[in-house]
Amino acid sequence: RLRHLERILENSTQWLLKLESYIQSSVKPEMAELRQTAVQNQTATMLEIGSSLLNRSAEQSRKLTDVEAQVLNQTWRIEMQLQENSLSTSKLEKQLLLQTNEIHKLQNRNNILEVRVLEMETKQQAELAGAHSEKEKLQRLLSRQSGTIEEMEKTLLAASANTSLLQRQQLQLLQSVQSLPSGDGTERKEIICQHKGIQREREEQKNQAGLQGHQDFCLFTVPSAEVRRAGIHASGIYTLHIANLSEPKKAYCDMETDRGGWTIIQLRANGSLSFQRSWREYKQGFGDASGEYWLGNEAVHLLTSRVPYALRVELQDWEGGQVYAHYRKFQLGSERQFYRLSLQDYSGTAGQQSGLALQGTQFSTRDADNDNCLCKCAQMLSGGWWFDACGLSNLNGIYYPARNNIRKLNGIRWHHFQGPSYSLRGTRMMIRPSSF
Fold first, then answer.
1. DSSP letter for each residue of 129-154
2. Could you tell me which of 237, 203, 238 has the C-alpha nearest to residue 220?
3. What Rg value do the Cα atoms of the chain yield, rounded?
4. What pTM, to 2 d.p., does this model score?
């Protein structure tokens, strides 16, 4: 544009010079001066226009330089972004290669696993065929054993016909016991030995009948109440031979409290024995009848499932207070029923209402949670008991000594006697037939 303007100025100047020479040659001197003045004015005007054009061209040149600088900056930024994009693209390509390699590895592993699965399927099919054959063998064996059992049942019926003689001997023995004086301990021992002799005779009958090891053969049972009826008045440790129980149980018999005849099934006195036991231990029983012990849930179930039994619970605090709870009907369900508790007709001094457990409560231990609480009461409160929803009592809790027995929710507690967090000094649970 500047060059174009310069050319225009040069043309204008040449034109003015020509015009001036023409005026000088053709116009009169008077007019020449006027024309010269006009030309000068036009020249000045043209010069002003040229200067303004030069200023505008300078401004436009500055703007162009600014625009060029901005374009250069944007171009540099775009180039940097392109470099960054190229780097990220290379990284993505590397990652894509790594992922494709991993996919190939996974495909190889999947192929190996498929081969193994096929091998396992073939093995399982072979094992299933073997199991079917074993099942057929077992069915044939079962059919043979069922025939043997039928023969054994016939033999049992023949052997049971001989029990009448033993029953007569038992009645004669009980009559002889009643006629004996109560103070002779030697004679009592002989009577107990005679009871055992009768049991040995029955065991011999079982051996002769080929039924050794069968628990459904009725053995002679001597609970504490029967000993008391036989005229033995001394409290002490006696051997209980309970039907369907694999071995005899030793238990302490109380012959004095409320006319006697009580079999102690639980005793807490000094904390010498831990009651933090498993389901199996509570089932079979633990401890020693000469001290603290638990007779066993299975033994109590077998005793209370044949005839109606009563339960007496005795409680003692650290201040010398003693109370009791009496239930005229008491029964424990089987292990399949989780030794479900059945109680009726409460009376006694251990509260205005029963504090043992609700009717139908199941037994729980640390490894067998059968309560109605999400908190697992046997683990939280310790011991094994009929907790229900952690309940009003737990006589198998931790034994706390004096001055350390307050505010102990996991101790030996009975809610209606000394409150829910007072750990008692001693407890006894005892049973006898309701008809005693």
1. HHHHHHHHHHHHHHHHHHHHHHHHHH
2. 203
3. 56
4. 0.52
